[in-house]
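re: that complex we talked abt at group meeting.

here r the seqs, copy pasted straight from the sheet so there may be weird spacing, ignore it
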Amino acid sequence: MSVRLKRDFFLKDIHIVAHQLVGKIIVRKFDAMKEERFRITEIEMYVGEMDLASHASKGRTKRTEVMYSCGGCVYVYLIYGMYWLLNIVTGKKDQAQAILVRGVEGIDGPGRIGQQLKLDKSFYGENLESSNRIWVEDDGMLCNYTLHPRINVEYAGDIWKNKLYRYKIEKAKL
DNA sequence: GCAGTGATACAA
DNA sequence: TGTATCACTGCG
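got the structure back, here u go
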């Protein structure tokens, strides 16, 4: 029995949402016939404007605008001209928190997830509570996870690049 | 180890 | 207008 997560799940502080999001299921409906499910195995937190690794550290721009809306929206952006990365906005309006989905079951790597889920700029700002093509479900599975530093954030300075903001599911629990 | 790739942000 | 940068991947 799988239940779609409502907006209030994402409105909590990012630290709470992140540890509850590990093991949840991303559902991507491609058309009437095709609907695929992916259990989240790895995520990273970007905790707000003060986080020097976050796009929001540069303030509000056209690209980061959706990070400033309240939780439950999708933030996608194109990186290196090739890959659409999937993020989920959390917290209250103007907190600028977002969680990068770095791995799901069967797909390792944020760029590959974007390819597999056929993401593009039209997903920018998509509402996870009401969308008919992408949402998140809870099937009740509880997962343990391990903490690690984030990847490719060398530019963020000693304090922020070393934060244990990457959550990885324990393989044994899958 | 590093090329490929193009939108974005900011300087000018 | 130009250009430096980039929350990555795949092929050496």
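couple things i noticed - Chain A has four helices and ten strands. Residues 44, 46, 53-55, 77, 79-83, 85, 87, 100, 102, 109-112, 114, 150-153, 155 of chain A lie near DNA strand C (CB under 10 Å from a C1').
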